[in-house]
Amino acid sequence: MIEKLAAHYKDAFSLAYSHEKKGYKWYKTDEGQIFGILSEAVTEEEKNLLTTLYTPYDPGLGEHSERSLKWLHYLYGDGGPPFPPSADAVRCYYFFSRQPVSDRQSFEEAMQGSIPSSTILWISQQKGIIFEDHPEPVIDKESIDQWIDSFTSDFFIELYVCIGQLNKLDAGVKERIQSEQAGFEVICQSFRIKQCITFSEALPVFFLNGSVTDQLFSEFLTESLTDTELVQTLKVYFECNLNVSLTAKKLYMHRNSVQYRIDKFIEKTGLDVKHFHEAAAVSLMMKYIEQMAD
Prior knowledge:
This protein is of the alpha+beta class.
C-alpha cells in the first residue's frame, strides 16, 4: 500500500520524516512506518480515507528532544541505533491517555522522576513510548501503579501504561519494539484493560488476536531457551506449581541448584516465574517456540 501511495502522490510523498518539513500531513502504518504527504496534494475526501486507514502522526513543532528524535528516526525511518554506549538492554512503556496531555514539559519532568534514564517519544497528543535505557531486570509493578495514580490526579488525565519486555540492544530490537507496540495498540483499541498491564499479562490476548510473530519475543528469552537443561528445569517447575523443593526432588537435584537456575533465568529475561502470570506467559512462549522449531 505504501508503494501505491508513493506512486500516486509522487514528489508530494515522503518517508523522510522531519519536524522541519512544513506543509506535510504525517501518518503511521500498523507496522510503525511514518510517511508524509503534502497537504495541498490531498483532497478532503482523501484525508478522511487516509485517517481511516492510518494513524495520524502529530509531531508538534519542536516537541522532540535530540534523544527522542534519534529514537523516532531509528524506529520509523533509516536512522542509526540511539543506544547509549553503556546500555545493553531497554524496556519500553507504551502509554496513552483518554485526554490530550496539555502540559507535556511537566509530564516529561515528572516521568523522569518516576523512570530515571528514560526518553519519551510522543506519537500523538495522547500517546507515546517511554524508553528506559538502564532498566532493572524485574519491574516493580506496585510502584508503577502508584505513579500512574499520581499522574492521573496531577494532570487530570486517564492514563494507561503497557509495560514491554526486557529487550536486548541488538540488530533485532527495532522489529521487536515495533511488534510490541503493534500488539499493545490492538489491545488498547479492542479490549477493556487495566490502567497498567505487563507484556506477560497481555500475552494471551496477543495469541487470541494473532499478534504473535517470531519478532515479538525478547532475545534474552530466546537465548535462554536454547539451554536444554534450563528448559527441562522450567518445565518441571511449572508442572510442580512453582514449588522449588518438589522440582528438585523430581529432577534429583539439590534445591539450591534449582533455585540458582530459576534466579539466573529471571535476572537475564526480567520474567519473574515465581509469580503465576509470568510463569504462565513463559510456558506459552516455550510452547510457541517449540512448535515453530518443529
